[in-house]
Amino acid sequence: MSLLEIQGLSKSFRGLRALNDVTIDVAEGEIVGIIGANGAGKTTLFNCITGAFPPDSGRVTLDGADITGAKMHRLARAGLVRTFQLMRPFATVTALENVTIAVQSRGVRPERRARDEAAELIARTGLDAWADAASGSLPTAVQKRLELTRALAMRPRVLLLDEVLAGLVPSEREPVLDLLAELRREEGVTMLFIEHIMAAVRRLSDRVVMMDQGTVLARGNVDDVLADPRVIEAYLGKEYGDAA
Ligand SMILES: Nc1ncnc2c1ncn2[C@@H]1O[C@H](COP(=O)(O)OP(=O)(O)O)[C@@H](O)[C@H]1O
Ligand SMILES: [Mg+2]
Fold first, then answer.
1. Inter-axis angle of helices 170-187 and 140-153, to 10 degrees?
2. Is the dihedral of CA 4, 80, 84, 171 positive or negative?
3. What residue ranges of the chain are covered by domains with CATH 3.40.50.300?
4. Cα angle: 215, vertex 2, 4; to 5 degrees
5. Nearest ligand 1 atom, CA 41
């Protein structure tokens, strides 16, 4: 049995099939990259897994338990946490407070203990200099790291990452990739990550799933998938950012 099993998920928006019978298994400790052009349905897949809206059909299980349509706080307690493509920290509170709130969401009390743990996490992700700054005022790269730090504060077994590197310049990407590699190595965190930057996909993924128009077009090892003519064809002519 895989740790995360996504079975036949479908979702339509007013006739548009954003997800069409998507099945993906992720084993414990595995990192699976999700690639595909804009509009392929990648974020919708995460939205259906994390209860933003229920899928029209299909099933999601975590460690054998049915979590289809479950809301984020329940999922977090079960060990599944996501980050957002567009960040949503509480803008007016400080970075440290944001992470403290995430630690408290696990039931850690008293506040002092939660705050201490948050401070450790912030040091680990290199955010010390911004600990007391209002989250909404932080530069994009820092907000991205804060979003990841908040996710870590929930002690995930499974982390769903939606374009965590978007908006970062190459020198800012490295520390994030290092951190993700370390999380898997040292804590066995399982990850499903949507990413456009192929160097990152190559570096982190054990396997890749390529989505196109709501379906899985190809899956397997990174080199094979990227060399697949159907994959190349699906990318041709599509706006694809700084993919290379
Ligand atoms: N909440 C929504 N309401 C209506 N259409 C949506 C919604 N979310 C996504 N879509 C549509 O579903 C398709 C897939 O979008 P999305 O999952 O965001 O793609 P990706 O993340 O791969 O770029 C797009 O055509 C998008 O416009
Ligand atoms: Mg998206």
1. 10
2. negative
3. 1-79+156-244
4. 60
5. 17
Is residue 92 within 6 Å of ligand 1 at its C-beta? no
* 40 CB near ligand 1 (under 6 Å): yes
- Closest by CA position to 192, among listed 56, 75, 55: 75
Q: pLDDT per residue over 163-221, tens digit each?
A: 999 888 999 999 999 999 999 999 999 999 999 999 999 999 999 999 999 999 999 99
CB atoms within 10 A of CB 26: 22
Give me the pLDDT at residue 81, please.
Answer: 95
The C-alpha atoms of residue 203 and residue 103 are separated, in whole angstroms, by 29
Q: Which CATH number fits domain 1-79+156-244: 3.40.50.720, 3.40.930.10, 3.10.310.40, 3.40.50.300?
A: 3.40.50.300
Nearest Cα to Cα of residue 230 among 210, 200, 201: 210
pTM (predicted TM-score): 0.93
Asked whether the predicted pLDDT for residue 67 surpasses 60, the reply is: yes
Indicate if ligand 1 lies below 6 Å from the C-beta of 44: yes
Give the DSSP H/E element, type plus range, for residue 209: strand 207-212
Angle between helices 111-124 and 140-153 (to 10 degrees): 130
Radius of gyration of the chain (CA): 18
Nearest C-alpha neighbor of 95 from the set 148, 158, 168, 155: 148
Nearest to residue 145, comparing CAs of 166, 114, 170, 176? Answer: 176
